[in-house]
Amino acid sequence: MSRPTENDGAPSNGAPDVFAMTDHITSVYADEIAVYQRFLRRLAADRTLSNPRRSVDDRPVEGPSLTVPGLRIHVRHSYQDAADLGSFPAESNPLLLRIHVQGFSDEYLDRTAARSNLVDSVTDPEGEAWTRALLGRRWADYAYELVRTPRPPTNTATRMLFAQRVYALLLDADGEPTLAPDNFAFQRVWNGIDSARKIVPTSPAVAAHLEAVGPFFETDDFRDPNTEADGGWRLHMTGADTESLPPPAAATARSLIRRVRVRGRVASRFRPIRVHVEQDQVCVYFRWAENPTTFAMTLQLPLSEDDFSGSPLDSPDSIVAMCLSNWQEDLRTGLLVWGHRTRRADGAVHIS
């Protein structure tokens, strides 16, 4: 079937109909979609594919917008391990598949030529239609639209990440689609995401299931006992109350406590168990993988505004972000082996 050059045959008159647009896209781009779906199903089954994008990059799902004149649409995927994003049953080995619906001016020959010049004009109905067409009905029934924050980023480096519609689908160890857990951290799935909206399923069985249990599955019965209901690590707090600290120190300590609870923020094998607060430092106690030893690392707190050294370390959050990134890099490169060890009075091994 020939490709449309404008909106010929597209259901763009009046209010856009998601399902009509989906049928149109599925028909016009049937060959490209078939190649992409075969690739995604192989990816779901074998997550170590070599040359992962070649087949779909050679035949991209790309064409003129059905609703916005002068706009072209390009659809692509990305993926990541989802185990640290929420609570899942044991052995589920969840994979998060993202579908990106990107718009660019038809002044460019194709998405490659457009480079980072994305146009934030893709409508929600059309973005959903392209996603449904690419995933196919069965997978699309389990997908979520990622809802963006009200304010777009001002940072040039992240603006392109924001200027697209992104959809998420979870796949289990067998490559089967699944709903998200009730504590899934959608905000961590992509830049500038506030929440998620469940796509309306076409299957009566899936629709009935959602009507009965809602858009997420409950995690109470199998959630890691070391985590809280929100999926973050459970921490034992000792030492000083952060309210008693000088303002810069208090803000930095609270930021560290909040961020260190996030599963996978430092590493998947890192499990914080205790945070001890003092007037000028915070000590984080943790376990590493299956090692029974309790380790500890320390962050020195800024006591006044003069302790901020300037960009990029010019705020409590930036200090904590740099600290956790350093811990992440050091732990992944063998800090527990090559680091300086000191046995603390409470029995923990302090690493520096």
Provide a compact summary of the structure.
With 352 residues, the protein is an alpha+beta fold.
Structure description:
There is one protein chain. The chain has 352 residues and is an alpha+beta fold. It contains eleven helices and 15 strands. Strands 1, 2, 3, 4, 5, 6 and 8 form a seven-stranded antiparallel sheet that branches. It has a six-stranded mixed sheet with strand order 10-11-12-13-15-14, with helices on one face. The longest helix is centred in the last third of the chain and has 17 residues.
Helix content: 25-40%
What is the global morphology?
globular
Number of helices: 11
Distance between the termini: 64 Å
- Low-pLDDT residue intervals, each spanning 5 or more residues: 1-14
Quote the beta fraction. 15-25%
Instruction: Report the major sheet.
Output: 7 strands, antiparallel
Based on CA atoms alone, the radius of gyration comes out at 24 Å
SSE string, helices as H and strands as E: HHHEEEHHHEHEEEEHEEHEEEHHEE
What is the typical, i.e. mean, pLDDT? 91
